[in-house]
Amino acid sequence: MYDLIIVGGGPAGLTATMYAIRKRLNVLLISKDLGGKTNYRLALPWIDEYQVIKGLEVVNKFRNELEYLKFARQMEPVVRIEKVDDHFLVHTKGSGELKSKAIIMATGAKQQRLTVPGEKEFIMRGLCYSALSYAPLFIDRKTVVVGHGELALRAAAELATVAKHVHLVGASGGALETPIGEKLKASNNVTVLEDHEVIEVKGNGFANRLVMKTPRGETIEIEAEGTFIELDLIPNSQMVADLVDLNEQGCIKVDKHGRTNIPGIFAAGDVTDNYAEQVLVAVGDGAKAALSAYDYLLPRL
Ligand SMILES: Cc1cc2nc3c(=O)[nH]c(=O)nc-3n(C[C@H](O)[C@H](O)[C@H](O)COP(=O)(O)OP(=O)(O)OC[C@H]3O[C@@H](n4cnc5c(N)ncnc54)[C@H](O)[C@@H]3O)c2cc1C
Predict the structure, then answer these.
(1) C-alpha distances in angstroms, 79 versus 90, 92, 163, 172, 215?
(2) Measured in angstroms, how far is the CA atom of residue 109 from the centroid of ligand 1?
(3) What is the mean pLDDT of the segment spanning 263-279?
(4) Could you identify which of 9, 93, 128, 201 might form a hypothetical disulfide with 31, taking C-beta atoms 3.0 to 4.6 angstroms apart as the criterion?
(5) Pocket perturbation via mutation, ligand 1, pick of 130, 158, 239 by most ligand atoms within 8 A of CB
(6) Atom 37 of ligand 1: nearest residue by CA position
(7) Which atom, in ligand 1's list, is nearest to the CA of 79?
(8) pLDDT tens-place string over residues 39-56
């Protein structure tokens, strides 16, 4: 029986695993990959190296250590976790069941794709999914935000503070009557294309044009040096959906110690209802969840 199984090898899971190893716990990290979303990097034709706060150095250091510590990791998907008496059973796709006294969920969240021609080709080449991370790179550039919810409006508002122009595609109705929606409608450098639908991403090495259908069925094309797909994130919480409390978006609810409502299950990073999807936030969450799990385990070691 393991003391601790950590599911997910992104910034949150890697940090939690390193903490657990240093505390000499019998720990196993189970993940589909090491690095998680830090494996994505946005490439832009006008930038070689960019200066956004990433925390990548610390994540890469932990990843390198774990690549070496083979006994502490297992590379495969987890499909379900169940509670049995005073421990947990982790069902994996390949190795069956693994037993643990405690669990940390660090499985992140998925970006929703547009699934239109050209999207796949230009992912992270002028087209990306995180204005929160990359907006500062678009000073005086022509940008497009695609999405209809809070995330898209927030992204458009942030880009509008630096970009030459922002087209917001897809937002409509109630979303635009909020304070941020009103602000966007009144901004000189923002054009809201209500109810338009993106049908293709075009480019030449990097995405630079978006083709869309207007509500009247016409096809139009706009220039976009940066395209941001800002649809709601889908948390990877399905393996514990029957076990712990989730919020309306499916994020695992945690308290300030990273504890879920089930003693012995902790969560960290983008899969939780904590604020801000950022590497350094996930790193901090992972450290906190590991220390919290250690406190839980101390009387059980
Ligand atoms: C395109 C893009 C660019 C970004 N750029 C930046 C940036 O420049 N700066 C910044 O601070 N933030 C950036 N972010 C946000 C940042 O990457 C995330 O907030 C951060 O990676 C979250 O860490 P995490 O560990 O919670 O989740 P993730 O990094 O998503 O890691 C989740 C891990 O769980 C694993 N996993 C998922 N499901 C299962 C399963 N069923 N079984 C086993 N393993 C599973 C995955 O394989 C992965 O290893 C970016 C995000 C995106 C999408």
Answers:
(1) 8, 5, 42, 37, 41
(2) 7
(3) 96
(4) 9
(5) 130
(6) 107
(7) 41
(8) 888 889 888 766 566 678
